[in-house]
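Sorry, can you check?
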Amino acid sequence: MKSFVLAAGLATLLSGAALAQTSTTPATDGAMAPATTATTPATAAAGGPFYTVQPPAAGQMAMSHLASDLDDKDVYGANNEKIGEIEDFVINSDGTVAAAVIEVGGFLGIGEKDVLVNFSELQMAMDGNKMRINAPTLTREILTSAPDTDLDTLFPDHD
């Protein structure tokens, strides 16, 4: 169940990024022209049931990721320190990602708690050749003072 929720969340998260690309073209006078947006269909054929993933160009971040790649990924806060790690995602019934479950606090697995963070608070960026998850408005103190979320109570059927 956890893998399904992670996969569904990541697919929803990244589908918007995979649909649009922005490019800037030089104007005739040497200045940069405004960016234009081109949309690429997400399916192999119009109306087809299959999703197509293109490998990233050299030096670019992949536009699609597996949810399992985000599991246990460190989250960095406003002061560029590790503030927790991604444990799971909350997916709405319409397939959108509502929140990330971030594990915070504790030491060696003792005293940790799960905090629900609005998914819109998280940003994915490249750090060298690795993906990095940033939460620029959050700090460790904010997360440790946030209410603990009992996932077993909220989602009794999860694994």
Summary: The CA atoms of residues 104 and 143 lie 7 Å apart. The chain has a mean pLDDT of 74.
